[in-house]
Specification:
157 residues; mainly alpha; 6 helices; 71% helix; 0% strand
């Protein structure tokens, strides 16, 4: 079995991360919105290509307010600043989230393989009538995420 990860985070560091996450929740969550399902698809999107366009339009709106007519330039500027700040956070959080997910996936995979290997070894011990093997196999069999005993009963009928 190939061990590709050996993650170790002591409790003090874990608590520091929890505190940082709590700060993010406390400072950002009250300001953030959640779009209804499908709502984002209906909105015009400011992507990388339109980013420069929007900044130039804001610059002109402030410089030549006579063309601003139907827009609130102060709110326009506030929206642009929101994008600037959140974009910086988003890039860093996205990278962090992906690595957290990938690390969790790899560690979970390795743990699952180790559990399956242990279960297999215990079943081998059961065949050889090794002490504690019946108890271990019984306990693990009840928790095995594979087929339920009901679906196995239906197959034997």
């Amino acid at each position: 079995m190939d061990n590709r990860i050996s993650f170790s985070l002591d409790e003090a560091d874990a608590q520091e991360v929890r505190t940082a996450l709590n700060v993010l929740d406390r400072k950002l969550l009250p300001l953030l919105v959640e779009l209804a399902q499908g709502e984002a698809r209906e909105l015009p999107v400011m992507g990388d290509k339109s980013y420069a366009f929007v900044f130039k339009a804001l610059e002109f709106a402030k410089q030549y307010p006579e063309f601003a007519g139907l827009i609130d330039v102060a709110e326009f500027e506030k929206d642009v600043k929101t994008v600037q700040v959140l974009r910086e956070f988003y890039i860093q959080l996205s990278q962090l989230t992906k690595k957290v997910h990938d690390t969790m996936t790899l560690a979970g995979s390795e743990a699952y393989v180790a559990g399956l290997t242990y279960y297999g070894t215990s079943k081998e011990g059961l065949k050889r009538k090794v002490d504690n093997a019946p108890f271990i196999v019984s306990e693990l069999k009840n928790r095995f995420p594979g087929r339920s005993s009901r679906s196995q009963e239906n197959k034997s009928e």
